[in-house]
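Hi everyone,

Forwarding the result from last night's run.
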Amino acid sequence: AVVSTQSTGVSQAAKGGARLVSLPECFNSPYGTQYFAENAEAIPTGDTSQHLIKLAKENSIYLIGGSIPESCGNKLYNTSIVVDPSGNIIAKHRKVHLFDIDVPGKIRFQESEVLSPGNTLTVFDVDGLKVGVGICYDIRFPELAHLMKLKGAQFMVYPGAFNMTTGPLYFELLTRARAVDNQVYCASIAPARDVNSTYVSWGHSVIVSPSGTIIDSAQEEEKIIFCDVNKSDIEDISSSIPTWKQKRSDIYQLNLVKNE
């Protein structure tokens, strides 16, 4: 059922004119530490990777495969692959910041109990547009977005399954913050809400402009959201409020220490 739903959604997005399509976090598996091992697959030989390759080729699109539980050796990762229209995997992002939180009386979740963190910064090219990818909790760390910006990212995409505690407070806020911080387009792509799931997603996928305005958004239900990326919007906001030229590297600096 999941494969059928995602296939239909990707095809509809492509027919709607999308050149780049993203799925949500853990789209092929229930989201929970108790589910990751049994649903983990090798990349690129696993069924889900092969399905994503097929979808990208059939629809002539670039496809960000949300994320899936990945098995590699004796480790598990929360991983997103990016497939080009020819079916080549052109990027792979393993969630860098694992979701370990404990909100008393509301939610406790510890990805690190079963997952290992990734160590790479992920930026790729779509027809001359530089796109950066993070996964869910990665969006809370402005340093990662800053480094993607330094690598040329003009659009940042975060497949993410925020929950009913953190979602209402932070999902849109963080998406708008990363857009404004970096003067780029930013999208957070969430699973639709399933109240019968052991982990209930907030939903509310959203795409934000470089000025922080909402271009398109969903509520809790399934919905395909769209935006046209206009590089001149990035240039306009960057020239009118030139924060990236005003940074004080004589006082503070951010460096990429590791990318492997």
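The mean pLDDT is 96.

Cheers,
N.
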